[in-house]
Amino acid sequence: MIDLYTWDTPNGDKARIMLEECGIDYTVHPVNLSEGEQHEPDYLTINPNGKIPAIVDPDGPGGGPLALFESGAILLYLAEKTGRLLPSDPRRRWAAVQWLMFQMGGIGPTLGQLGHFLYFAPEPVPAAVERFSGEAQRLAEVADGRLRGREYLADEYSVADIACYPWLARHERLGIDLDELPDLRRWLDTVGSRPAVRRAMAPSR
Questions:
Q1: Which helix (H) or strand (E) holds 55?
Q2: What digits encode the pLDDT tens for the residues 88-134?
Q3: Using an 8 Å Cβ cutoff, are 181 and 141 in contact?
Q4: Are strands 26-30 and 66-69 parallel, antiparallel or unpaired?
Q5: Is the pLDDT of residue 58 over 60?
Q6: What DSSP letter does each residue of 74-94 carry, written as one string?
Q7: DSSP label at 128?
């Protein structure tokens, strides 16, 4: 039974989808970001960076407990632990890692900043909205190009799709236009229809 410390954000959804896909039993410990619970001393012993998600696996390497933060690290750890969702073929494996990092270094930071300036900034900053809106649209176009002629980002369903989906699934809220991105739209429908993804993303979870 893994302990998952999380909140309703795309990064939190990534960890939850991965646990559901791997069939691992887990207990959710909500970390209310609006109340600042991510900065409480007990939580900082698990994640000194004061972000979500984080996990504690009581049966970590060597049989002892392991606390782990950063959503990308969590996905890779669970893939290695279960032998799932990271291709065994070296080329596809590195493709999956590459597109996971595309999310970690591009999609996540850009869409996160866009969401902040659209909905949470104390005052409007039009230049920031324009900057991050343009980059978010460009990254969506990159993903659409990658998906042209293939079902998933690394050809088979993997950690790369799990990482990217919760962010890109919020395209309407973030103003990303999918009208000319048919492959990305098809991929969103395909991934979003998976039972594990639907359980993880359900509003009433």
A1: strand 54-57
A2: 999 999 999 999 999 999 999 999 999 999 999 999 999 999 999 99
A3: yes
A4: unpaired
A5: yes
A6: HHHHHHHHHT-SS-SSHHHHH
A7: H
Report whether pLDDT(204) > 70.
no
CA 83 to chain centroid = 19
CA distance 145 to 20: 28
Judge residue 118's burial from the number of C-beta atoms within 10 Å of its C-beta, 0-12 exposed, 13-18 middle, 19 or more buried.
Answer: middle
Tell if the pTM clears 0.90, that is, is over it.
yes
pLDDT above 70 (res 205): no
Task: Give Cα 109 to chain centroid, integer Å.
Answer: 11
Looking at residue 151, its pLDDT comes to: 98
Reply yes or no: is the peptide bond before residue 126 cis, omega within 30 of 0.
no
The rounded distance, in Å, linking the Cα atoms of 184 and 118 is 23
Q: What is the DSSP string of 32-52?
A: -GGGTGGGSHHHHTT-TT--S
Closest CA to 88 of 146, 155, 27, 150: 155
Q: Does the pLDDT of residue 187 top 80, yes or no?
A: yes
Q: How many CA atoms lie within 13 A of 125 on its CB side?
A: 15
